[in-house]
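Please predict the structure of the following assembly.
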Amino acid sequence: MKSLSYIDVFTPRSLEEALELLDKHRGELAVLAGGTDLIIQLRKAQQKAPNLLNIYMLDELRYIKHDNEIIKIGALTDFATITESPIIQRHAPVLAEAAATIGSVQILNKASIGGNIVNASPAADSLPALYVLNATLTLRSKTGTRKVAIEQFYKGYKKLDLQSGELLTEVSFPAMKQNQIGMFFKHGLRQGDAISVVNGAILLEVLNGYVKDARIALGAVAPTVVRATESEKTLIGQRLSEDVILKAAQACLTSISPIDDVRGSAAYRKEMCVNYLYMTLWQMMRMVNL
Amino acid sequence: MKQSTTWVGKEVVRRDALEKARGLTKYASDMFLDNMLWVAACRSKYPHAVIKRIDVSRALKSPGVVAVFTHRDVPNNRYGVFVKDRPVLCDDRVRYIGDIVAIVAAESKEEAEQAVEEIVVEYEPLPVVSDPLEAMKPDAFPIHEGGNISRSTRITFGNVEEGFKASKAVVENEYRTAPQIHMFLETEAGFSYIDEKGVITVVAGGQSPYRDHHEIVSTLQLPPEKVRVVIPHVGGAFGGKDDVSVQIYLALVTWKTGRPARFVWDRDESTIAGTKRHASIVRMKTGASADGKLLANDVEIIYDTGAYTALGHAVLDVAIENCNGPYKIPNIDIKAWLVYTNNMVASAFRGFGAPQVMFAMEQQVDQLAYELGMDPIEFRLRNALKRGDVMVFGNKLETSVGISQCLEAAQNHPLWRQKETLKSEKSLPWIRRGVGVAAAIKGFTLGALPDRGSVAVELRRDGGLTVKGSFTEIGQGVVQAVAQLAADLFKIDIEKVEVVFADTGKTPDTSVTSASRQLFLAGNALKKAAENLLNLIREVLTTRYGQKVIEARFENGYVVGPGFSHSFEEVAQMLEEHGLSREVVGVYDVPRVEPIPGSLEIPHLFYMFGATLALVEVNILTGTVTVPKLVSIADVGKVVNPQTLTGQLEGAAAQGLGFALLEEPIIDKGILKTTNLSTYLIPSIKDVNEIEVIPVESFEDEGPFGAKGIGEIGIISVAPAIANAIYHAVRVRPKSAPMTPEKIYWLVKQAGLTVK
């Protein structure tokens, strides 16, 4: 475990000041929010740790708003708040569900949604939900504001469309409609607080018993979160049936490229993707066909 | 003989409960001294290598560094309880990645760690032997001079071939279990200083202050009176602090620099360099007659001890002794090997070799019951040991045997009676339910090895008692138990009993706190102390009354007899006035027999027994096994403190769940990949559901107030009960623990189970 006593920590008092500092020290600062991933990574890193921009005090980045059918979440909002938020529970229950599984109570209280997005772990539990919600990320810099669709944000394993000087400030997405249902799933190797071997989210729009739209995102099975487009196609235009959901579940194999690691083999991950999609769709089928 | 008690058996709140709940208790890792040096270790970069050169010159010049020590600073650089095969600081070779080549003492933790990076060690890598089966081969690269077999033995009674011939059902299987990491909340930690009298004092988490003391003085060749070992409250041990960890290094730094020092292992250091439960390969062929009598057990036991023997020789004995379960079997043939590899060092862990073999044997027994069409509990009861029986090793069981009562409690439990209903209850289409049972046996005390313990009792001037013993408070509640036993033995209010523990400068040697022995041992030594004190008091009273006082007894804080009654305060004064000590020592020698040929400590005279029932839910689409309910039944002789007992059995069940389902160190050619709590998963609160504890009181005549040990018995039958429940649920036999989702998934898939 490395000591971090040599690094400098800048703690701005406003977003403006934070953007100013990011601009001034272009490419030299790592952004510290909840720190639940970053500090551990810095202590384990072989190379010298960068100086830190500590944005934890910027309360202006903590909010959840329902604004004209768009849900907006400030990047520093912690997962306990997201899980418990009536707005999220009502308009994006799939995200509330995912947020609750991110970690222990201590982690939920500390870790921020912005941190989870920028840390870019392929196994991050909030990402599949944000993918199926079609989330948009707001990136601010001293010179301006840019919006990026979450799917465009990830360019490869831990490769982000994030310029030096830019700070993720907000996540937004359309509120779920009455005829949309969403479910999150996660396969951890124990019941509580485990990093996902496979995770995913499904969002279905159902009209008169037929699937009008389907969005499925899978995590921990590729360098980034991926959409299971073949599975989605299999579902769209169909009534949910035992046969259809089984085919849709199996169709995910074309979208994923898992690897072997300490948590599981690639072969097992593939089977888990299929089986979790099946189990989750089975439960959604029950809800739809009630 | 059963005695009425005031304190023993009562739910008395533990004396350390409030201070621990409030965070006031000081553990070794909480204590900081002025002018203290921080110690950091330079550990091996290879699982196996020759050391060509060690150069510490740059490290010595590193900022804040006060000293750097290597093997040249250790006068006697080999230690070990059974085999002196382990260097304090490596000289010729490193044998695993936890091996320490040098230690740095610096003004701060950061400076010490920085200087470690500056130490140059030139290695010549050697072949890494990571698989115990490979290590056993005659042409395997030898890790130690004598080869890779640290110990092997064979013990036979009867004739197994005859037994198999007479058997109706014979099952043969190979089982494997992974090394388990103790994962105590407090890692290996301690500090040291030279006291005002010039004594090097080491305060560190441990399980035996006198053994730690011995390891320090023998390696550093210091006069025994110049070293003192203190073990404060320990944040968990489970056997993982039975061996020395930081102690010798702390003594070395303080001895050489004259300054206080602190050495606390990080979590990843602890996972790498702390001892483990032995990984095991157990092959078993077991036969039973048509009427359900076990007739023969042919067993091969291979335990991976890693780079050094540590307590492995004794662990192997416990494996041999317990691999036949709590049953009568006329024919046995047991071959056992303790094998060196370049893996992490294995040593003591709750159960001490028993959980691995019982994972095997209790599944064997289950299979035989199924094959013979018998109820698994009925089958076990038919073979269960009874008092007066001759055990597998030809020894007669003359102490208390509660296994039948444990099994009957399981048989009568609703979980067992309703197991078929539970199994067929409707739920999600991919969930299967099952109920399993397993039995357990384990000797307590050190068996046929010499086992003696002393306890001192001081009758204080204020009429209270101070009990002094070197037992260690590792969270198990021994201090509370000792106080309750003392209060009943001396018939005094428990509030008047003080307990001083685990300090070679203040307490007599009660020997190791392990083998579920300390309550039994300290309790019996206390009994002797009570007799000794009463004899002393009789002597004084005889002088005082001018006639021989034959009858005197403790009663309600007084010493009473015909025509007299004296408070403890008065008695304390009388003793002083007669020039007699107010302190007595009780010494207890554990009754034992000679070990059977081929063994070190087999047989024990005293055994604990137990049984576990488990309800499991298996998700056949993921392989995930959950345990909604677990029943832990244990023959404890006599309950001393019901709350502590519940805590011990629930804790053992949770740790057993981890061993059964989760805890899997991944070792790649001697390199541990799972060095933190994110990759090495122990049960979280969500993994531990309802646990019901049922104590069985078989009353052990030799035990204090009938009590036996309780520390280990609760873990032993957890994994096989879960395995048997999985079989009941999905009809596959999981022969490898931990039974992780991935392993169970492939087994279930292979069996062709489908969603209903």
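Chain A touches chain B at residues 1-3, 5, 104, 187, 189-195, 262-265, 268, 271-272, 275-276, 278-279, 282 (CB under 8 Å). Chain A has three domains: 9-54, 61-174, 180-288.
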